[in-house]
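Tutorial, part two.
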Amino acid sequence: MGRPKKKPEFDSEKILDEILKNVVEAYEDLDTSQRPGGKIAYGALKELTDGLGLKPSKVKKLLMTANVRFNKEIYCNDNSREILRLYKEGNRIVPKL
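Running the prediction step on this input gives:
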């Protein structure tokens, strides 16, 4: 019998989904001219990061994660397309031991 959890209601998957939904909503609320071709203009990225309180690299990473998590192309660049393609082929991230 193990030790009881300090926060049994804590669900990291649920929290991640909530964060991703908020970032995706904020991204999709941008004017389409600020996200040409699924990418994101620098000024729009600054506006988005200021509104969310996150760094630009983190916002891009969360958008790429949302692509995989929701299995659709939300944010597009060469890296995100490659990541989504590899994920659909069955590749997974395996930590090095």
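The mean pLDDT is 83. In part three we will examine how such features are distributed along the chain.
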